[in-house]
Amino acid sequence: SFRLFPLREHGMNFRARPLTCREIEAFKKSSEVMERFVRAYELMLRFYGIILVNKKTGELKRAENWSERFENLNRFSHNNLRITRILKCLGEMGYERYQVQLVKFFLTETLVKETLPNVKRSALDYFLFTVRSKRKRRALVYYAWRHFKPPGSFVWGPLDKLVKYK
């Protein structure tokens, strides 16, 4: 069984076989496969009410229909599992910059703009920790801490290190 965002681990569909490292490397060498992957990513983003503004940087913005799409995201938590899968797959396929932008987008929408209250726990518990780069992940944890309410309840990073960050 084929997966749109395959991983090296089993997901909910046990008929889908996990990717091998060799398969990932073969995908990365094929410009056609990688272009299709980015198109699939853009398709899923649009489903969630998000637009990929810049393919080079991974910059994102809300789509025009964001309000109704965010309503769907807030109502159906199974989307959070899919987003986690997409984030992990972005990392596997060498799109770490896309990972960082998508996590930051969700942190902004959940913590700053407060448009996705039912996605907040997944953004903090799962999305954040899919980011492979320790440096970039730390920056995102710091960003989350700065915007988390109430500030004293933030448990996703050690307070002493967050206070000294940067």
UniProtKB/TrEMBL annotation:
Coiled coil: none annotated. InterPro entries: OGF_rcpt, OGFr. GO terms for cellular component: membrane. Residues 4-162 form the Opioid growth factor receptor (OGFr) conserved domain. Pfam families: OGFr_N. Belongs to the opioid growth factor receptor family. This is OGFR factor. The gene is Ogfr.
